[in-house]
């Protein structure tokens, strides 16, 4: 069963994870968000729903 042999795909998976972790991730984290989070608290007034069948 060739699926149980990790030799063909394990090195590729390990290389891609190392590439992502050490090269791509720091570059992606340098981007700033175009919609930064605000400290404003949202206050919403909720009212109960009058169901027509009750």
From TrEMBL:
**Species classification:** Eukaryota, Metazoa, Chordata, Craniata, Vertebrata
Q: Which GO terms describe its cellular component?
A: mitochondrial membrane; proton-transporting ATP synthase complex
PANTHER family from the UniProt entry: ATP SYNTHASE PROTEIN 8 (PTHR39937:SF1)
Any keyword Lipid biosynthesis?
A: no
Q: What is its main location?
A: mitochondrion
Q: Which GO terms describe its molecular function?
A: proton transmembrane transporter activity
Where does this protein reside within or beyond the cell? Answer: Mitochondrion membrane
Q: Which InterPro entries match?
A: ATP8_metazoa, ATPase_protein_8
Q: Which UniProt keywords apply?
A: ATP synthesis, CF(0), Hydrogen ion transport, Ion transport, Membrane, Mitochondrion, Transmembrane, Transmembrane helix, Transport
- Give GO BP annotations, semicolon-separated: proton motive force-driven ATP synthesis
| Designated gene of the protein | ATP8
Name of this chain's protein? ATP synthase complex subunit 8
Q: Which family does it belong to?
A: Belongs to the ATPase protein 8 family.
Which superkingdom, per the lineage?
Eukaryota
Topology versus the membrane: Single-pass membrane protein
What sections of the protein cross the membrane?
6-24
